[in-house]
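Z., the sequence and structure:
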Amino acid sequence: MNNRRVVVKIPASTANLGPGFDTLGMALSLYAWIELSVAEQTQFQFYGDQMKGLPKDKSNLIYKVAQLVFKEAGVEIPELSISMHSDIPLTRGLGSSASAIVGALVAANALIGSPLSDDKLFQMATALEGHPDNVGASLFGGIVVSAWDGERADYVRIEPHERLKTLVAIPAFQLSTEKARHALPSQISMADAVFNVGRSSLLVAALASGELGIIRHAMKDRLHQPYRAALIPGMTAILEQAVDHGALGVALSGAGPTLIAFVEESAAADTKRAGSGLEQFLLDTLKQEGIEAKTLWLAPCSSGPQIIVEDISSQPAISLPDRIRGEVKV
């Protein structure tokens, strides 16, 4: 393993999809890359604006998660060379922490010959993240329906419909998951619970069967979005009106502040060509509240982490930026 270099490409994710609070997730075509190898002394190389300010010592999340894998496998590798680039904006609701956790787990496992199963990595990732939706999507790709009882996580994966696209509006401010969770009530009514069970079930059925027309009705939510709306000015108007501008449905992405619209491919092409429609509606609605934002068209990502394992002694050294040149989106 001392001669191995592992490079992992991990997809971003969106969670909840409206009503599926802490249970539904989907991988997106926005990525982070982690490179890992054994070193004489631990060192870090971070690239990209998203990585500024992250610790470059053994308190770093990537290092700590890798050590959990080694401990679980009964292996000691105290010193690592870690490089990372991420296009996934931090604390915006696109699974940046989940992608880092999954990437570190997968890279560390591959470095020692992959003794841990995907299910074991999923259990570890869920425990670290505190919920299975984002990590499940980043680990398995596609749409993941999951449940966790605090001890074990289970999931079913759904292949995204080929015509399903997404448009995300990413506001130019951060919103921590902790702050977004503090906005939630400690109790909800039976009526709201039943409403969300119905909508979440309907959404899973629509995504599994390809009945995309049902999505606009199925993405409604009463558990978390109404309570988080005050943290994101313009969100309520977007949730209520986006379907009138070409969206199949719209939701807060994870804890926010990013908003994600599901769009059928033909409608996505129309609004791209027109330079107006849904994309302009999202930007204008946020701008009216004094919020600058950027939009990205993202496809669902059907695959989980892509792993390259190289023999350092026979492969020339290539820096991570050179390796991923042409793939970087943000």
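The mean pLDDT is 92. The first strand starts at residue 4 and ends at 15.

Let me know what you think.
H.
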